Structure formats: structure tokens, C-alpha cells
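Input sequence (330 aa), recorded before submission:
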Amino acid sequence: MAASATADKPKKPFNFLKWAKSRKGQQTLIIIGFSIIPLVLLFTFTYYPFAEMAKFSFYDRNYTKVRGFVGLKNYVDVFNRPDIFKSLFLSLYYMGGAVVQLALALYLATVFCFGVKGGNFFKGCMFFPYLINGIAIGFIFKFFYTRGFVLDTVLQWIGFDQESLPFWLRDTRINNVSLVATSVWKYFGQNMVLFVGAMMSVDATLYEAADLDGANKWQQFKYIMLPSIKTIVMLNLIMAITGSLSAFEPPFVIMSGGGNGTATYFVKMHEVAHTSQKLGLASAMAIVLLIIIFVVTILQKLFFKYVFRNAEDEDKGAAAKREKKLAKSR
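Predicted structure, C-alpha cell format:
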């Protein structure tokens, strides 16, 4: 009888408000909210605009009118138009500058890590350019490179004759190098600070043991420091190379829109999209740049995997030894 009474007892209807106020309900709602809201924002402001841009790349259109479907014609024009292909070629200047920038940042970070008087002051001075707005830096260097201004004056103090100096922004043989130097000056401080932070996290006892074994500073850097910060080196290089492919502010501000053969790929994309009103071609340029960045990133990862292969083997061997010792101690 008792069992049948229990079975016949009606179930209480689900009360959402009561469940939402409970601890379990609040945990569930928080998990759902923190999962759905970022996904909705990511889809709305990233994936959906990217899908629309990819669709635009197959059409001949401007911002208000679609002239027709052209298939892969816009992608063919990216490589057939001399002005666009040349702007893509200019990225090699900035890639070279990125390598110099990272080498300089790594060298200075190593010097500061081993100890220098007034190191914090110099680190602050070198990091300061990164805090300056890119447009402001463009105007600074526009006057810095102008004939007879700051750079020419300093070189004349050293002993150079102004007539023998090139026109830093007018001479097509050197103007892109001048712009790359601007980017190096702005960003190497940021890379240096990231390197210093990674180097300071390395166990100091490793350096002490290396000193006792007679290792010099170069050997400590090569066999202890560099393998320990390989992740940060990879990150900085990926950021520097992708940034060099996306260079915009130096040629746009200093050269007033990329004049005199300094228009980078981003500047040319801006011109195609906003001046020529060829939105389909500009979208194709953006997709091509994305593919190039993707390929370059994979090549960089493969390169570093090859360079640090010995360090990875040593890490695996050390981990295996630690596991054996733990197993024996148990």
C-alpha cells in the first residue's frame, strides 16, 4: 500500500526561478553564460565579418553596389597588378628589419639579465618608444629624416658633409630602409622586455652550476638561457614577421600615403578599398595576406622545431629520469 501511494504521488512541477536561485542552478547558468556570450561576440565581430569579406572577394563591387560575380579574377589581379605585387615585395624589407629587431632585443635582454648598472633606467628608456602612438612617431621621423634636419645635423657633427648624404626619404634606394629603421626603433623595446621577463624565470642555480663547471657567458646563453626561452623567441618572431607583413603607419604617415615607392601591402589595400572603391579586390588582398601569414607561421614553427630539436630531446630525457627516480622512491 505504501509503495503504491508513493508511486501515485504527483511530481512537483519544475520551478525555474527556484532552480536558478539554487547553488547548482547558479553554477550552471554561469557556465552557460561564460560559454555562450564569448562565442556570440566572437561570431558576431570576427567570424561573420570574415565570411562576408571572403564572399566579397569573389565579386566586382564597391561599398554600395555589386557589379557582378567574377570568381577568382580578383585573386589573379593581386599577383598580376605590378603595383600590388611590388607592395607585397616590400614586406621583405620589414621582415629583414624584424630579424634585426629581434637580434638587437635578444642581445640587450641578455646583457641586462647578466647585470648592468642602471639597467632598469635603460630598459625604461628603450621600452618608452613602444608607448608612443604610431601616428606621432610618424610625424617625429618625418622631420627627423627631412633634409638638413635632425639626422643630417648629427651626421655633420660627426664629420659628414651634407652634400654627400643621401635624401633619406626621397632616394628610392634607401627610403624603405629608413622606414624600416623607424619600426625597429619602435618595437625592439617591447621584444626586449618580453625576453628579459622570460630570462628572469630561468632557475638561477643552473647558472651557478655552469659557473662551477667553467662555462663562460656565451655557453650559458647558448645551452641554458636560449633553450629555456625558446617559446618566447618563437612568439616574438611570429609577432614580428606578421607585423612586418602588416606594416602601415610608417609609409602612410611619413611618406604621406606611401609615395615614392614606399606603399606597403596594407597601404595599397587601403588605397584600393577606399580610394579606388574596389572592395572585392581589397577583400581578395586581405585573404591572400591571411594565407601568407598562415604559411609563414607554419614554416617558423617547423624551423624552430628543427633548431631546438636537441633541447627537446634533452628535456624528454630529463623528464624520463625524474620519473624513474620517483618510481624508485615509491
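Checked by second reader. The CA atoms of residues 13 and 19 lie 11 Å apart.
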